Amino acid sequence: NFTYRLNNNILSFKHSNSHSNFYISNSNIVKSKRSNSRFNFQKLSLLPKSKRSQTTLFIILALIFVSIIILTFTYNFNFGNSEKANFNQQTNILANEVKLCFENLYKESINEIGIQGGYFYEPLTEYLKNDINSIPFYYFGELEYIPEPELIQEQIIADIDSKNDRCFNLINTSLEYEYLYELPTVIIKEETIEITNNLKLILTKNNLTNIIDLNEPTEIKSNIIAMNSLASYIAYSYEINKESLCLSCFQEIALDENFIVEIDDSLDNILITTITETKEDYYPRFYNFAMTSTKDIEKDGKLLEDYEIKNTDNELNLKTSYFENE
Predict the structure, then answer these.
(1) Whether the model pTM is above 0.85
(2) Spatial distance between the Cα atoms of 6 and 29, rounded to a whole number of angstroms
(3) Backbone angles phi, psi at 220, to 5 degrees
Protein backbone atom coordinates (compact mmCIF):
# COMPACT_ATOMS: atom_id res chain seq x y z
CA ASN A 1 0.00 0.00 0.00
CA PHE A 2 1.16 3.50 -0.76
CA THR A 3 -0.19 6.96 -0.66
CA TYR A 4 0.34 9.77 -3.28
CA ARG A 5 -0.19 13.51 -3.49
CA LEU A 6 -0.15 15.90 -6.46
CA ASN A 7 1.14 19.38 -5.72
CA ASN A 8 2.51 21.90 -8.31
CA ASN A 9 3.04 19.18 -10.91
CA ILE A 10 4.89 16.98 -8.34
CA LEU A 11 3.47 13.57 -7.74
CA SER A 12 4.66 12.14 -4.40
CA PHE A 13 4.47 8.47 -3.49
CA LYS A 14 4.98 7.14 0.00
CA HIS A 15 5.17 3.50 0.98
CA SER A 16 6.37 2.09 4.29
CA ASN A 17 9.96 3.37 4.64
CA SER A 18 10.40 4.81 1.17
CA HIS A 19 9.34 8.06 -0.48
CA SER A 20 9.57 9.09 -4.21
CA ASN A 21 8.74 12.28 -6.14
CA PHE A 22 7.88 12.40 -9.89
CA TYR A 23 7.84 15.61 -11.95
CA ILE A 24 5.12 15.97 -14.60
CA SER A 25 6.23 18.10 -17.62
CA ASN A 26 3.82 20.66 -19.11
CA SER A 27 4.51 19.29 -22.58
CA ASN A 28 2.78 16.09 -21.61
CA ILE A 29 -0.33 17.82 -20.35
CA VAL A 30 -2.99 17.97 -23.03
CA LYS A 31 -5.45 20.80 -22.90
CA SER A 32 -8.56 20.55 -25.01
CA LYS A 33 -11.60 22.67 -25.54
CA ARG A 34 -13.58 19.49 -25.44
CA SER A 35 -13.09 16.89 -22.77
CA ASN A 36 -13.31 14.03 -25.29
CA SER A 37 -10.99 15.57 -27.93
CA ARG A 38 -8.57 13.13 -29.56
CA PHE A 39 -6.25 15.82 -31.00
CA ASN A 40 -3.24 17.51 -29.49
CA PHE A 41 -3.54 21.07 -30.80
CA GLN A 42 -0.12 22.04 -29.48
CA LYS A 43 1.49 19.60 -31.87
CA LEU A 44 -0.27 21.04 -34.99
CA SER A 45 2.19 23.88 -35.71
CA LEU A 46 2.20 25.42 -39.25
CA LEU A 47 5.77 26.75 -39.01
CA PRO A 48 8.74 24.52 -38.84
CA LYS A 49 10.49 24.60 -35.51
CA SER A 50 14.04 24.30 -36.77
CA LYS A 51 16.00 27.40 -37.85
CA ARG A 52 17.16 25.70 -41.05
CA SER A 53 13.61 25.00 -42.14
CA GLN A 54 12.56 28.58 -41.42
CA THR A 55 15.46 29.94 -43.51
CA THR A 56 14.47 27.75 -46.48
CA LEU A 57 10.89 28.99 -46.31
CA PHE A 58 11.98 32.64 -46.27
CA ILE A 59 14.22 32.03 -49.31
CA ILE A 60 11.32 30.49 -51.22
CA LEU A 61 9.04 33.40 -50.36
CA ALA A 62 11.73 35.89 -51.42
CA LEU A 63 12.19 34.11 -54.75
CA ILE A 64 8.44 34.22 -55.39
CA PHE A 65 8.33 37.93 -54.57
CA VAL A 66 11.29 38.73 -56.86
CA SER A 67 9.75 36.66 -59.67
CA ILE A 68 6.51 38.64 -59.41
CA ILE A 69 8.44 41.92 -59.62
CA ILE A 70 10.42 40.72 -62.66
CA LEU A 71 7.30 39.49 -64.45
CA THR A 72 5.49 42.77 -63.76
CA PHE A 73 8.43 44.83 -65.05
CA THR A 74 8.80 42.64 -68.13
CA TYR A 75 5.10 42.95 -68.94
CA ASN A 76 5.14 46.71 -68.55
CA PHE A 77 8.34 46.97 -70.62
CA ASN A 78 6.96 44.81 -73.42
CA PHE A 79 3.64 46.64 -73.34
CA GLY A 80 5.42 49.99 -73.52
CA ASN A 81 7.58 48.82 -76.42
CA SER A 82 4.54 47.46 -78.21
CA GLU A 83 2.66 50.72 -77.72
CA LYS A 84 5.64 52.71 -78.97
CA ALA A 85 6.06 50.42 -81.97
CA ASN A 86 2.38 50.83 -82.85
CA PHE A 87 2.68 54.60 -82.49
CA ASN A 88 5.80 54.70 -84.69
CA GLN A 89 4.08 52.57 -87.31
CA GLN A 90 1.00 54.78 -87.18
CA THR A 91 3.04 57.98 -87.60
CA ASN A 92 5.14 56.49 -90.43
CA ILE A 93 2.01 55.52 -92.35
CA LEU A 94 0.58 58.97 -91.75
CA ALA A 95 3.81 60.64 -92.89
CA ASN A 96 3.70 58.71 -96.18
CA GLU A 97 0.05 59.64 -96.71
CA VAL A 98 0.75 63.33 -96.09
CA LYS A 99 3.80 63.24 -98.36
CA LEU A 100 1.81 61.58 -101.17
CA CYS A 101 -0.98 64.11 -100.69
CA PHE A 102 1.43 66.99 -101.16
CA GLU A 103 2.98 65.39 -104.26
CA ASN A 104 -0.48 65.13 -105.84
CA LEU A 105 -1.20 68.68 -104.76
CA TYR A 106 2.01 69.88 -106.47
CA LYS A 107 0.95 68.30 -109.74
CA GLU A 108 -2.54 69.74 -109.47
CA SER A 109 -1.17 73.23 -108.79
CA ILE A 110 1.27 73.06 -111.69
CA ASN A 111 -1.57 71.94 -113.97
CA GLU A 112 -3.71 74.84 -112.83
CA ILE A 113 -0.90 77.33 -113.43
CA GLY A 114 -0.40 75.95 -116.95
CA ILE A 115 -4.09 76.14 -117.85
CA GLN A 116 -4.11 79.78 -116.72
CA GLY A 117 -1.03 80.74 -118.73
CA GLY A 118 1.38 80.96 -115.77
CA TYR A 119 -0.95 82.62 -113.25
CA PHE A 120 -2.73 81.68 -110.04
CA TYR A 121 -3.82 85.15 -109.04
CA GLU A 122 -5.54 87.54 -111.42
CA PRO A 123 -3.33 88.02 -114.50
CA LEU A 124 -1.33 91.22 -114.87
CA THR A 125 -2.81 91.74 -118.33
CA GLU A 126 -6.27 91.57 -119.91
CA TYR A 127 -7.71 88.08 -119.78
CA LEU A 128 -10.60 85.83 -120.72
CA LYS A 129 -12.58 84.35 -117.85
CA ASN A 130 -15.10 81.59 -117.40
CA ASP A 131 -16.51 80.03 -114.22
CA ILE A 132 -13.34 78.07 -113.55
CA ASN A 133 -10.27 79.49 -115.21
CA SER A 134 -8.73 82.68 -116.52
CA ILE A 135 -6.69 82.85 -119.73
CA PRO A 136 -4.34 85.83 -120.09
CA PHE A 137 -3.74 87.74 -123.29
CA TYR A 138 -0.13 87.62 -124.41
CA TYR A 139 -1.04 89.91 -127.29
CA PHE A 140 -3.83 92.46 -126.98
CA GLY A 141 -3.51 94.86 -129.87
CA GLU A 142 0.14 94.90 -128.94
CA LEU A 143 2.55 92.59 -127.20
CA GLU A 144 1.64 92.17 -123.53
CA TYR A 145 3.60 91.03 -120.49
CA ILE A 146 4.38 87.31 -120.62
CA PRO A 147 5.07 85.64 -117.25
CA GLU A 148 8.71 84.84 -116.63
CA PRO A 149 9.84 81.71 -114.74
CA GLU A 150 10.39 83.69 -111.52
CA LEU A 151 6.79 84.87 -111.53
CA ILE A 152 5.50 81.40 -112.39
CA GLN A 153 7.40 80.02 -109.39
CA GLU A 154 5.65 82.53 -107.11
CA GLN A 155 2.26 81.61 -108.59
CA ILE A 156 2.87 77.88 -107.99
CA ILE A 157 3.80 78.62 -104.37
CA ALA A 158 0.58 80.60 -103.87
CA ASP A 159 -1.51 77.83 -105.44
CA ILE A 160 0.04 75.12 -103.22
CA ASP A 161 -0.43 77.24 -100.11
CA SER A 162 -4.13 77.68 -100.88
CA LYS A 163 -4.73 73.92 -100.94
CA ASN A 164 -2.52 72.47 -98.17
CA ASP A 165 -5.38 72.13 -95.63
CA ARG A 166 -6.59 69.02 -97.40
CA CYS A 167 -3.33 67.24 -96.51
CA PHE A 168 -3.46 68.32 -92.86
CA ASN A 169 -6.99 66.93 -92.68
CA LEU A 170 -5.57 63.44 -93.25
CA ILE A 171 -4.18 63.39 -89.71
CA ASN A 172 -6.14 60.97 -87.52
CA THR A 173 -8.20 62.63 -84.82
CA SER A 174 -6.76 60.17 -82.27
CA LEU A 175 -3.44 62.00 -82.57
CA GLU A 176 -2.69 65.43 -81.28
CA TYR A 177 -0.56 67.40 -83.71
CA GLU A 178 1.18 70.67 -84.28
CA TYR A 179 3.13 71.78 -87.32
CA LEU A 180 5.88 74.20 -88.20
CA TYR A 181 5.14 75.47 -91.68
CA GLU A 182 6.63 78.00 -94.04
CA LEU A 183 5.79 78.62 -97.69
CA PRO A 184 7.26 75.94 -99.94
CA THR A 185 10.30 76.64 -102.08
CA VAL A 186 9.83 76.19 -105.84
CA ILE A 187 12.65 76.10 -108.38
CA ILE A 188 11.80 75.65 -112.07
CA LYS A 189 14.52 73.77 -113.92
CA GLU A 190 14.88 72.72 -117.55
CA GLU A 191 12.75 69.57 -117.33
CA THR A 192 11.74 69.45 -113.67
CA ILE A 193 10.19 71.58 -110.97
CA GLU A 194 11.83 71.10 -107.58
CA ILE A 195 9.48 71.75 -104.66
CA THR A 196 10.61 71.73 -101.04
CA ASN A 197 7.77 71.67 -98.54
CA ASN A 198 9.07 73.52 -95.48
CA LEU A 199 7.00 71.52 -93.02
CA LYS A 200 7.54 69.65 -89.75
CA LEU A 201 4.75 67.67 -88.11
CA ILE A 202 4.80 67.09 -84.35
CA LEU A 203 2.54 64.14 -83.54
CA THR A 204 1.60 63.23 -79.96
CA LYS A 205 -0.35 60.38 -78.39
CA ASN A 206 -0.40 59.92 -74.61
CA ASN A 207 3.25 60.33 -73.57
CA LEU A 208 4.68 59.48 -77.00
CA THR A 209 5.90 62.09 -79.49
CA ASN A 210 7.27 61.85 -83.04
CA ILE A 211 8.61 64.67 -85.21
CA ILE A 212 8.19 64.13 -88.96
CA ASP A 213 10.39 66.22 -91.21
CA LEU A 214 8.82 66.76 -94.65
CA ASN A 215 11.52 69.12 -95.93
CA GLU A 216 12.85 66.67 -98.48
CA PRO A 217 12.72 68.14 -102.04
CA THR A 218 10.29 66.60 -104.52
CA GLU A 219 11.07 66.54 -108.25
CA ILE A 220 8.10 66.89 -110.62
CA LYS A 221 8.77 66.29 -114.30
CA SER A 222 7.81 69.41 -116.20
CA ASN A 223 8.37 71.19 -119.51
CA ILE A 224 6.70 74.38 -118.33
CA ILE A 225 9.75 76.45 -119.33
CA ALA A 226 9.60 75.05 -122.88
CA MET A 227 5.84 75.69 -122.98
CA ASN A 228 6.30 79.25 -121.78
CA SER A 229 9.10 79.85 -124.30
CA LEU A 230 7.00 78.48 -127.17
CA ALA A 231 4.03 80.63 -126.10
CA SER A 232 6.31 83.69 -126.03
CA TYR A 233 7.68 82.82 -129.46
CA ILE A 234 4.17 82.48 -130.93
CA ALA A 235 3.14 85.85 -129.47
CA TYR A 236 6.29 87.57 -130.80
CA SER A 237 5.76 85.92 -134.17
CA TYR A 238 2.16 87.17 -134.21
CA GLU A 239 3.38 90.72 -133.64
CA ILE A 240 6.24 90.55 -136.15
CA ASN A 241 3.97 89.11 -138.84
CA LYS A 242 1.48 91.96 -138.34
CA GLU A 243 -1.12 89.94 -136.47
CA SER A 244 -0.89 86.88 -138.70
CA LEU A 245 0.17 83.41 -137.65
CA CYS A 246 3.35 82.01 -139.14
CA LEU A 247 2.92 78.29 -138.63
CA SER A 248 6.32 77.37 -140.00
CA CYS A 249 7.90 79.75 -137.48
CA PHE A 250 7.16 77.48 -134.52
CA GLN A 251 6.70 74.11 -136.29
CA GLU A 252 10.19 72.83 -135.52
CA ILE A 253 10.08 73.93 -131.88
CA ALA A 254 6.78 72.13 -131.25
CA LEU A 255 7.91 68.93 -132.94
CA ASP A 256 11.22 68.86 -131.07
CA GLU A 257 9.46 69.19 -127.72
CA ASN A 258 6.72 66.67 -128.63
CA PHE A 259 4.07 69.33 -128.09
CA ILE A 260 0.71 69.58 -129.79
CA VAL A 261 -0.43 73.14 -130.53
CA GLU A 262 -4.13 73.82 -131.02
CA ILE A 263 -5.52 77.22 -131.96
CA ASP A 264 -9.20 78.00 -131.32
CA ASP A 265 -10.59 80.88 -133.40
CA SER A 266 -14.27 80.33 -132.56
CA LEU A 267 -14.45 83.77 -130.95
CA ASP A 268 -14.39 86.75 -133.25
CA ASN A 269 -10.93 88.22 -133.64
CA ILE A 270 -9.55 86.13 -130.74
CA LEU A 271 -7.11 83.23 -130.95
CA ILE A 272 -6.91 80.91 -127.96
CA THR A 273 -3.78 78.78 -128.12
CA THR A 274 -3.37 75.54 -126.19
CA ILE A 275 0.01 73.80 -125.97
CA THR A 276 -0.45 70.16 -124.95
CA GLU A 277 2.21 67.99 -123.31
CA THR A 278 2.41 64.48 -124.81
CA LYS A 279 5.04 62.99 -122.49
CA GLU A 280 3.69 60.82 -119.70
CA ASP A 281 4.02 62.00 -116.10
CA TYR A 282 4.95 65.54 -117.15
CA TYR A 283 3.12 68.56 -115.76
CA PRO A 284 1.36 70.77 -116.70
CA ARG A 285 -0.60 68.88 -119.29
CA PHE A 286 -1.84 72.08 -120.95
CA TYR A 287 -0.63 75.65 -121.31
CA ASN A 288 -3.13 78.27 -122.50
CA PHE A 289 -2.89 81.89 -123.64
CA ALA A 290 -4.88 84.21 -125.91
CA MET A 291 -4.14 86.80 -128.60
CA THR A 292 -6.31 89.42 -130.30
CA SER A 293 -5.71 92.14 -132.85
CA THR A 294 -8.14 94.57 -131.27
CA LYS A 295 -8.89 96.00 -127.84
CA ASP A 296 -12.61 96.36 -128.46
CA ILE A 297 -13.81 92.88 -127.46
CA GLU A 298 -15.00 93.48 -123.88
CA LYS A 299 -14.21 95.93 -121.16
CA ASP A 300 -11.05 94.95 -119.27
CA GLY A 301 -10.59 91.99 -121.60
CA LYS A 302 -13.20 89.95 -119.73
CA LEU A 303 -15.87 87.88 -121.45
CA LEU A 304 -19.19 86.73 -120.01
CA GLU A 305 -19.01 84.35 -117.08
CA ASP A 306 -20.67 81.53 -119.07
CA TYR A 307 -17.90 81.64 -121.65
CA GLU A 308 -16.48 78.21 -122.42
CA ILE A 309 -13.45 77.34 -124.50
CA LYS A 310 -14.52 75.25 -127.46
CA ASN A 311 -12.44 73.52 -130.10
CA THR A 312 -13.56 73.97 -133.69
CA ASP A 313 -12.71 72.48 -137.04
CA ASN A 314 -10.40 75.42 -137.63
CA GLU A 315 -7.89 74.32 -134.96
CA LEU A 316 -4.38 73.60 -136.20
CA ASN A 317 -2.56 70.52 -134.92
CA LEU A 318 1.15 70.79 -135.55
CA LYS A 319 1.55 67.02 -135.79
CA THR A 320 -1.04 66.42 -138.50
CA SER A 321 -0.53 66.08 -142.23
CA TYR A 322 -2.51 69.29 -142.64
CA PHE A 323 0.30 71.18 -140.94
CA GLU A 324 2.96 69.48 -143.06
CA ASN A 325 1.09 70.32 -146.25
CA GLU A 326 0.79 73.91 -145.13
Answers:
(1) no
(2) 14
(3) -110, 125
